[in-house]
Design brief:
The complex is a heterodimer of chains A (about 625) and B (about 70).
Chain A: H1 3-9, H2 11-33, H3 36-63, H4 69-82, H5 86-118, E1 124-129, E2 132-137, E3 146-149, E4 158-164, E5 166-169, H6 171-174, E6 180-182, E7 187-188, E8 193-194, E9 199-205, H7 211-224, H8 228-255, H9 258-266, H10 271-290, E10 293-295, H11 298-304, E11 309-313, H12 314-318, E12 319-330, H13 335-346, H14 352-365, E13 388-392, E14 396-401, E15 404-409, H15 411-416, H16 423-434, E16 438-444, E17 447-458, H17 462-471, E18 475-479, H18 484-494, E19 498-500, H19 505-517, E20 522-526, H20 532-537, E21 540-543, H21 550-555, E22 558-560, H22 567-601, H23 607-626
Chain B: E1 3-9, H1 15-26, E2 31-36, E3 42-47, H2 54-63, E4 68-70
Antiparallel strand pairs in B: 1-3, 1-4, 2-3
The chains are: A alpha+beta (about 625), B alpha+beta (about 70).
Chain lengths: ~625, ~70
């Protein structure tokens, strides 16, 4: 690096340091020798060196008809020289450029945080074209092309694995620290790191159309969106500077004290007030993004900081969302027959319980002799289609097969159809439900022939997450379509404060509305697709597993990239910390301005002192805000 | 026809500086929309390519004493 390049790169630092040394030199000269003229010359020189860039910017400001801090500082420095306050002039300029240098450095750090994310995507990709593997720029890969990802390499595109098996570190996209196992049919994201085996990936998104790029755009937009506090401060700031200038003029007219008027100019920019809150918000949003949580913006962050109730959708949120048949009990016939008939009845249903029953029926139906040990099973169409089929929403299904009527459903279905429930059946259902399972009756021609119990495993993290939220003073509620007894059992196991059972999707939205009307600030955690209306109704909608679902990334107030519940207490905690941090910063700024104004108007604070406190307060709020990067 | 260009300015040192740049760019010929973000340093410009030349935007930002980078 030549001296010239070095100077260009570190210009501000060099200028500030030179100005500082000259200032110190000029001051010592005056102090040691009492030789005022020499001292004054050095000090003016210090002011000119340090002030050149400031004055240049002041000129630009004036040319575009703005009165900014640089205009005010230049005016103050020139004024100070004019009235013979050389020491003050040099000190003001030096402190201002030192402050500016430190502030620029720290802000640059915040600004480049996302850039680092961007640089995670490799520049080139190995693509199979006409049977050869060729290296091309990553953004020139077309959708549908096969990309080869070697072990240890970064994945250059979003895509689907078609061959190979490996563990992939998805931390850049989802914030998960543990590698995720990937094999045929799994989705992978650009910017994640392939650890073990080679993968063939068919590209589904390249260039700027990848999940990582969407995340980055999302995070930037969030950092740029002003929160209501910031908007208010901006409006305030627009009047503050002109008001202080008027005050300076007024002070001069009344007191004829030039130094006081100039000092007012120096503190005339509400620096800490306008810089503090955005730095807090930007740092917090950046921190959250690194941990796989996307926040929509400062406004949502501020609202999230006031959350006092978190509502969880049960299925797929507190539970894994993988419902399986836990047990089958036959009453009038054997369990196998019960399952088979239920499978037939549910075959055309799209309910998630139907899938579980059908899967179990298919599995049970493969005779021992043809059971394949590990080899792929040839699609067994052994569960036949029903002849007729009808869904009764919220109750179950009724189908006809082989001349008989099969109904599968809950107690409401049986009551509606006046089907008698023997005590033995009711007892069995009660027992399953008390174990947190969902029990459905299987009815043939009006007689209950069996009970199928379905279970959706709790996420291991769920109880811990609920406890963490409670410890933070947040009420927790579970919303579910399950019956009362199952809901209570699950709620007890999770340790959740409250639950609402037997809810239809629109009831969930109404429940959220009701909580809000009670005066709670409500967060709703759901899957972002089925729960979209409830998420939108809540003060803060939190979508789980958003990586891969673009709508969730775009619309949720808060999107958890991974299916990791434990991010929720962290995100709520971070939001609360951000709210506190913004308040602290506003407090620091207001206190500074008050103290300064009082000090200046009582002639206790002069130029250099005013500038020192002003720049100090700006640095303080920036550093305070940046603490949130490591929260 | 409207085209979009984006710059990054890493050396904004105060929010007012960013709004000054925004005002200057808005006055440039052929510019339809400008957003300058202090927090991220991002400068977005929508312009009519028949009238405006993106190189002018760069020099406009430079004339305010900041260094734009094309992204």
């Amino acid at each position: 690096m030549t001296v010239r390049e070095y100077y260009r790169k570190h210009r501000t630092a060099v200028v500030t340091a030179t100005s500082g040394l000259l200032y110190a030199g000029g001051w010592s000269l005056g102090y040691a020798t009492g030789y005022d003229t020499a001292s004054a010359l050095v000090l003016v020189f210090a002011a000119v060196i340090g002030g050149y860039d400031v004055a240049k910017h002041a000129y630009y400001e004036l040319r575009s008809r703005t009165v900014g801090i640089k205009t005010l500082v230049t005016l103050a420095a020139v004024g100070a020289v004019a009235i013979g306050e050389y020491w003050e002039a040099a000190a003001v300029v030096f402190l201002f450029s030192l402050g500016g240098y430190l502030e620029g450095r720290t802000m640059r750090k915040t600004r480049t945080a996302l850039q680092e994310l961007l640089e995670l995507t490799p520049a080139t990709a190995l693509v199979r074209r006409d049977g050869n593997d060729v290296e091309v720029p990553a953004r020139e890969v077309d959708e549908g092309e096969t990309v080869i990802v070697k072990p240890g390499a970064k994945i250059p595109v979003d895509g689907e694995v078609v061959a190979g098996e490996s563990a992939v570190n998805q931390a850049p996209v989802t914030g998960e620290s543990a590698p995720v196992h990937k094999t045929d049919g799994d989705d992978v994201f650009a910017g994640t790191v392939n650890r073990e085996g080679a993968l063939d990936v068919v590209a589904t998104g390249t260039g700027s159309d990848t999940t990582l790029q969407r995340i980055i755009r999302r995070v930037e937009a969030a950092q740029e969106a002003q929160s209501p506090t910031e908007q208010f401060i901006d409006r305030f700031a627009r009047y503050y500077t002109p008001a202080i200038v008027l005050l300076a003029v007024g002070a001069f007219v009344v007191t004829r004290d030039v130094l006081m008027a100039l000092t007012l100019l120096v503190i005339g920019c509400p620096g800490a007030l306008v810089i503090g809150p955005p730095v807090s918000v930007v740092s917090a949003i950046g921190n959250a993004a690194r941990n796989g949580v996307l926040m929509k913006g400062g406004e949502h962050l501020e609202r999230a900081g006031r959350i006092d109730l978190v509502a969880f959708d049960k299925t797929g949120t507190l539970t894994k969302g993988e419902t399986t048949v836990a047990s089958v009990q036959g009453f009038e016939c054997d369990a196998e027959k019960t399952l088979r008939l239920a499978g037939i009845a549910e075959k055309k249903s799209e309910h998630h319980l139907a899938d579980a029953i059908l899967d179990a029926a298919r599995e049970a139906d493969v005779p021992e002799s043809v059971a394949t040990h590990g080899a792929p099973v040839v699609e067994s169409a052994r569960v036949p289609d029903p002849d007729d089929f009808e869904v009764l929403a919220g109750k179950g299904v009724v189908a006809r097969y082989d001349g008989r009527e099969i109904a599968v459903g809950n107690r409401a279905l049986l009551d509606e159809r006046d089907i008698a429930v023997p005590e033995s059946v009711a007892a069995s259902v009660r027992e399953r439900e008390e174990a947190g399972e969902t029990a459905v009756h299987v009815v043939r021609d009006g007689t209950v022939i069996g009970v199928i119990a379905l279970r959706d495993e709790l996420r291991e993290t769920a109880p811990r997450v609920v406890r963490a939220l409670k410890d933070a003073g947040v009420r927790t509620v579970m919303l579910t379509g399950d019956n009362e007894r199952t809901a209570r059992a699950v709620a007890e196991r999770v340790g959740i404060d409250d639950y609402r059972a037997e809810l239809l999707p629109e009831d969930k939205q109404a429940a959220i509305e009701a909580f809000r009307e009670e005066g709670s600030v409500v967060a709703m955690v759901g899957d972002g697709i089925n729960d979209a209306p409830s998420l939108a109704t809540a003060d803060v909608g939190i979508a789980m597993g958003a990586a891969g679902t673009d709508t969730a990334i775009e619309t949720a107030d808060m999107a958890l990239m991974a299916d990791d519940l434990e991010r929720i207490p962290d995100a709520v905690g971070l939001s609360k910390a951000t709210r506190r941090n913004v308040l602290q910063n506003v407090g620091i700024a207001v206190l500074t301005v008050t103290v300064l104004l009082a000090g200046v108007l009582t002639s206790n604070v002069h130029l250099a002192g005013g500038m020192l406190v002003h720049e100090g307060s700006v640095l303080l709020v920036i550093l305070n805000g940046m603490r949130l990067r490591r929260w | 026809m409207t085209e979009r260009i984006q710059f990054r300015v890493r050396d904004f040192d105060c929010p007012t500086c960013a709004s000054t740049v925004e005002r200057v760019l808005r006055r440039a010929d052929g510019v339809e929309h400008v957003a300058v973000h202090y927090t991220t340093g991002r400068v977005e410009i929508e312009y009519d390519p028949a009238v405006a030349d993106p190189a002018d935007f760069e020099s406009a930002i430079e004339s305010q004493g900041y260094t734009p980078q094309v992204t």
